[in-house]
Design goal:
Layout lengths: L9 H28 L8 E2 L2 H9 L3 E7 L2 E6 L5 E5 L6 H7 L8 E4 L3 H32 L13 E3 L15 H15 L1 H5 L8 E5 L6 H12 L3 E5 L10 H15 L3 E6 L2 H4 L13 H14 L7 E7 L7 H4 L6 E4 L5 H11 L11 H7 L5 H17 L7 H13 L9 H20 L8 E3 L9 E3 L11 H22 L7 H16 L19 H7 L5 H28 L1 H14 L1 E3 H8 L18
Parallel strand pairs: 1-4, 2-5, 7-10, 7-11, 8-9, 9-10
Antiparallel strand pairs: 2-3, 3-4, 6-8, 12-13, 12-14
């Protein structure tokens, strides 16, 4: 049965022996060196003093002496016994014997010439440490280089390469960005048939900037462009250019562009390009010696260095286009800007249908209902929601995902997981009236969407939440709607004060939402008594933007802005307080129901307070989730 034996792979054995060979060589050399330094082998004899040797010679027991420097090997008569002795350096064995009354002629004395051996040992003592160090470092560098972590690889690009032969992502695999796909289809045509455009004198775009919030599919769309064009795809994050060593970022840029040019036509994708492409002189990064600035300069040089025949297109992705240096986004570098936004209803349905393909669902699960429930979700949020729903169903040993799993998954993605710790009766009562206050004020405010869910189940840092998801997508806000949203946000604290005669810290996030809306109304939208004016509350660079604009906004104007913001917030609080006083009975009933069953959906809530009446002509748009 020899043929049935499992053979050790030959290549693995060879590699093992090669790896061991270096260690064996170094070990043997070191052993030989230190052995020779110690005076060679002992020949198996015992170590005895010189006086014992003299006595044995007098007794006629010794046959001969063998001298090697200060080392004496004694051979005895009649047997193979050998012993070792040593004399003082510089002393003659003849004088030692004569001084002890022994005639040297009575014993054979053989003196070995060790001058040549000493010469070699001197040479080895000098060269062997050097040879060992060279062999050691050569082996270390070779192993490190094979592992891709050699010191010499600091300047090499860390871009992940997806060859054109690898499984490709196509435009059909990307849903929810139809307008963006149309824009990028021309880039695909440039890569596939450049001669068609050259014949008309058109210039191939050097760069495309994908702009949009996190999770909308910028990276996936860039890979789809490469897949449609059938070209190599080099993917790297902006932060991967940076290293602790100065000059590494620029070296990696040069290496990546050189590799891409060799593989042309090809695509270079730089994710989070704002990490290396931010405006020079901003954020404390200034001066030509800054590593980030050197890296940016090298990218600009490389993009300028493309010849018309080099079909290499750079795709950058960012969610902060306002931070990018103007030299990077000018025509001739990033010629095109493609903006990706949050998916609308039809786009969400398309995204959901892709992620539902490999999952079983109950028959009553409605894809359109899921899409309407998830306004404001990105493609990544939708994928995560469906995955969480599958996990929840598996946790309860279900055969298919149902509506309850989807509802819980959507809430978990938006607000975080439930907190299981027990709440005191006092905390539960506080949370119930707080959330009931949001729900009742929102219900009786005509420009706020219907309550979808109100609960006192704690999640993350909140003791409950009330959601008002819209029934339609919309891009604009009205002044009336913003004022009603502020009143609804104030409803939680107003209910606490009305019923419990005290207020808690639970309204902190509500006040933050209300204040941000009021400040935007005054500073951005011209929806205050200051009139149609915009003084830029949307800080581009945080404190630096405010400092930069400080000279253009007078102290008097800043004071008037604060007064207007405070006035809008006070009016919103009074509106919430008035609604709750008029509908105190409804407030108590909603709070009581929450204490009993913890969560109310739309139907259960409207059984208590009645059907929501929305004035004709009012479109709905996403409302904040209040806690």
């Amino acid at each position: 049965m020899a043929n049935g034996r499992k053979k050790f792979p030959q290549t693995r054995l060879v590699n093992l022996l090669k790896g061991m060979g270096v260690y064996v060589l170094v070990g043997l050399a070191a052993l030989l060196f230190f052995t020779n330094l110690s005076g060679g082998t002992s020949g198996g004899g015992d170590q005895v003093p010189i006086s014992k040797i003299v006595t044995d010679i007098k007794d006629g027991k010794v046959d001969k002496l063998e001298l090697e420097n200060e080392r004496i090997v004694v051979f005895y008569k009649g047997d193979n016994k050998q012993v070792i002795s040593r004399k003082e350096a510089g002393e003659s064995i003849y004088k030692i014997l004569e001084s002890s009354g022994v005639d040297p002629k009575t014993v054979g004395i053989e003196v070995k010439d060790t001058s040549l051996q000493q010469a070699w040992m001197s040479i080895l003592g000098t060269l062997l440490p050097i040879i060992l160090m060279v062999v050691f470092f050569f082996f270390i560098f070779r192993q490190a280089k094979d592992a891709g972590s050699s010191i010499f690889s600091f300047g090499q690009s860390k871009a992940k390469v997806f060859s054109k032969d690898a499984p490709q992502i196509k435009f059909t695999d990307v849903a929810g960005v139809e307008d963006s796909k149309k824009e990028l289809q021309e880039v695909v045509e440039f890569l596939k048939t450049p001669e068609k455009f050259k014949a008309l004198g058109a210039r191939t775009p050097k760069g495309v900037l994908l702009v949009g919030p996190a999770g909308v599919g910028k990276t996936l769309l860039a890979r789809a462009v490469a897949g449609e064009a059938g070209v190599p795809f080099f993917s790297i994050a902006g932060s991967e250019f940076m290293e602790i060593l100065v000059g590494v970022g620029a070296a990696r840029v040069r290496d990546m562009f050189a590799t891409a040019k060799k593989s042309a036509p090809s695509i270079i994708f730089i994710d989070e390009i704002e990490s290396i492409g931010r405006q020079r002189g901003m954020g404390g990064f200034s001066g030509g010696h800054d590593e980030r600035e050197q890296t940016l300069n090298q990218i600009l040089v490389e993009m300028d260095g493309f010849s018309p025949n080099e079909a290499v297109i750079v795709i950058g992705a960012t969610n902060r286009p306002d931070m990018l240096d103007v030299a990077l986004i000018r025509p001739g570098r990033f010629d095109r800007r493609v903006t990706l936004g949050y998916p609308d209803l039809e786009e969400r349905k398309a995204i959901i249908s892709i992620h539902m393909r490999n999952k079983p669902f109950e028959k009553d699960v409605n894809m359109e209902r899921i899409a309407r429930r998830t306004i404001g979700f990105t493609g990544a949020d939708l994928a995560n929601m469906l995955n969480e729903a599958a996990i929840l169903a598996a946790r309860e040993d279900k055969k298919a995902i149902d509506n309850q799993d989807l509802e819980e998954a959507a809430t978990k993605v938006k607000l975080g997981p439930q907190r299981k710790r027990l709440q005191s009766d006092e905390d539960r009562k506080l949370a119930a009236y707080h959330e009931a206050g949001h729900a009742v004020v929102g219900h009786y405010s005509p420009h706020v969407d219907p309550v979808h869910r109100v609960t006192i189940v704690a999640r993350s840092m909140s003791g409950g939440h009330t959601s008002f998801p819209p029934t339609h997508d919309r891009n604009n806000e009205s002044r009336s709607r913003l004022l009603d949203q502020i009143a609804t946000a104030m409803g939680g604290q107003a209910a606490e004060k009305l019923v419990l005669k005290d207020i808690s810290t639970g309204a902190s996030s509500d006040l933050e939402i209300a204040t941000s809306i009021a400040r935007a109304m005054v500073m951005d939208y011209g929806m205050s008594n200051l009139g149609p004016i915009s003084v830029g509350s949307k800080s581009t660079f945080g404190w630096m933007r405010m400092a930069d604009e400080g000279g253009s906004i007078s102290t008097e104007m800043l004071n008037r802005i604060d007064i207007e913001v405070k006035r809008i917030l006070d009016e919103g609080y009074k509106q919430a307080e008035g609604i709750l006083k008029r509908h105190r009975t409804k407030l108590d009933k909603v709070a009581k129901a929450l204490l009993e069953i913890e969560t109310l959906d739309t139907e259960e809530f409207e059984k208590i307070v009645g059907k929501k009446l929305i004035p004709q002509g009012i479109s709905t748009t996403p409302s904040p989730v209040l806690s």
